[in-house]
Q: What sequence folds into this?
């Protein structure tokens, strides 16, 4: 097995060994879907949601939980912990470079987000009759760009945080902002219009996800902003990242 494969195997075991990580990134959004799905009033079409029901409207916001937790909460905390304990420095002296560890963490984050998305789509469809994303390619593109933008922000936090506590402190405002503008804390239809508009262009771009899911085409500007954030923030994170 290659050095990367060995690191990926170890990091996956560590991720699964800590029940808080899979519970908050995969089980929590799925549990919320099931709870809301069993409320009959939330399964009835409503003009507020464009004659869709609340469940269909809210599923993209549930996906925001997974993306934000994996990209902004877990990823920078793990990397900062490894830096603080000297793991990254020691890896630099072995065939398994620190880059391999970073790549393994990104693979785990992406696999977690993909698993959550598949489960939300499948359970929503089979259990509560939520239509599948009507534009699957646009939905995949929107999810990919939104995830990449948040991962870039998470890597920036990991790049500048020298300790675990510092990473957690820096991640909190990014995490809470993503959750708030993503409609997790308060459904977006209850927010003032100007906050909704801000949320349209705040990673991971929940409106683009919703549009692709419900049949509209995501606005190119929303997708472009996610791509720009990924490139710019990712470049800054790469420049500032230190292994020690």
A:
């Amino acid at each position: 097995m290659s050095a990367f494969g060995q690191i990926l195997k170890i990091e996956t075991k560590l991720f699964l060994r800590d029940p808080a990580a899979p519970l908050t990134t995969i089980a929590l959004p799925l549990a919320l879907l099931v709870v809301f799905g069993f409320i009959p009033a939330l399964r009835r079409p409503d003009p507020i949601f464009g004659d869709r029901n609340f469940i269909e409207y809210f599923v993209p916001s549930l996906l925001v939980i997974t993306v934000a937790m994996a990209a902004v909460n877990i990823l920078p905390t793990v990397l900062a912990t490894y830096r603080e304990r000297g793991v990254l420095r020691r890896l630099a002296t072995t065939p398994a470079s620190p880059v391999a560890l970073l790549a393994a963490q990104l693979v785990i984050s992406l696999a977690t987000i993909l698993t959550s998305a598949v489960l939300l789509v499948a359970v929503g469809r089979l259990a509560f009759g939520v239509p599948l994303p009507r534009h699957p390619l646009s939905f995949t593109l929107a999810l990919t760009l939104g995830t990449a933008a948040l991962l870039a922000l998470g890597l920036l936090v990991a790049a500048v945080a020298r300790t675990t506590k510092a990473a957690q402190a820096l991640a909190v405002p990014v995490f809470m902002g993503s959750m708030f503008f993503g409609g997790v804390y308060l459904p977006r239809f209850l927010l003032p219009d100007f906050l909704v508009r801000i949320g349209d262009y705040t990673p991971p771009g929940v409106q683009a996800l919703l549009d692709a899911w419900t049949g509209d085409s995501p606005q190119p500007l929303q997708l472009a902003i996610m791509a720009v954030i990924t490139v710019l923030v990712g470049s800054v994170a790469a420049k500032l990242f230190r292994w020690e």
